[in-house]
Amino acid sequence: MSKIDPKLFSAHEHALEKEYDVCPKCGGELQHRNSKSGPFLGCSQYPSCDYSRALHQQDHSLDKVLPGTECPECGEELMLRQGRYGMFIGCSAFPSCQHIESAQPQAQSSPDISCPSCNKGKLAARQSRYGKTFYACNAYPKCSYAVNDQPIAKPCPDCGWKLLVLKKTAAGKREVCPQKSCSYKSAPLVET
């Protein structure tokens, strides 16, 4: 405790109590506030004065026009953009056209594996917002069947479920039944 300099705590103005600016609308003090869109400066006279200013300017320097591409909805050029969940491809006519596509190359879906739950859709590879691949029925939202591991078009020998999944275990890759009520696991597969 003897090494603490008391001069640091006796300063007249604390850094967090600093006055930012004066509101250009009403002359009130601007205060640091937070919202779901991020931090901003807002007038202390709110709600009578609704002035606000972003604390951090959005950087659109990463937005690049992709020459030779065309939006399937409106015909304008497509752009590579940075969003909340990473890079994506969007229409340059935003906000009038809201077409977007994924910037990542599409993972190959399993070849023609029908959804065992609804028997109408096919299982397709999808990515969560965290980048993890899962396999879900393409008839969503009518069918919400999904598995986390790669599906294999083989019926389960124990319960008869229409597919198995390829699961990595400590012993190696195994074919496993995705049904919770079934505990079928194949012997470890030999990799070629």
Give the structure's gist in a few sentences.
By secondary structure, the protein is mostly beta strands. The protein has strands at about 30-35, 40-45, 50-55, 65, 80-85, 85-90, 100, 125, 135, 145, 150, 165-170, 170-175. It is built from no helices and 13 strands.
Q: Characteristics of this structure?
A:
mainly beta
Structure, explained:
It is built from no helices and 13 strands. By secondary structure, it is mostly beta strands. A four-stranded antiparallel β-sheet has the order 4-5-6-7, with no helix packed on it. Strands 1-2-3 form a three-stranded antiparallel β-sheet, with no helix packed on it. Strand 9 (133-137) and strand 10 form a beta hairpin. The radius of gyration is 28 Å and the shape is elongated.
Strand-pairing-aware structural class: mainly beta
Helix content: under 10%
Strand content: 25-35%
List the strand order in the largest sheet. Answer: 4-5-6-7
How many strand units?
A: 13
**Estimated radius of gyration:** 28 Å
Spatial gap, N to C terminus = 66 Å
Query: Major β-sheet, in short?
Result: 4 strands, antiparallel
How many helices? The count is 0
Looking at the structure, what is the overall shape? elongated
Low-confidence stretches: 13-18
SSE topology sketch:
Layout: E1 30-35, E2 38-43, E3 52-54, E4 64-66, E5 78-83, E6 86-91, E7 100-102, E8 123-127, E9 133-137, E10 146-147, E11 150-152, E12 164-169, E13 172-176
Antiparallel strand pairs: 1-2, 2-3, 4-5, 5-6, 6-7, 8-9, 9-10, 11-12, 12-13
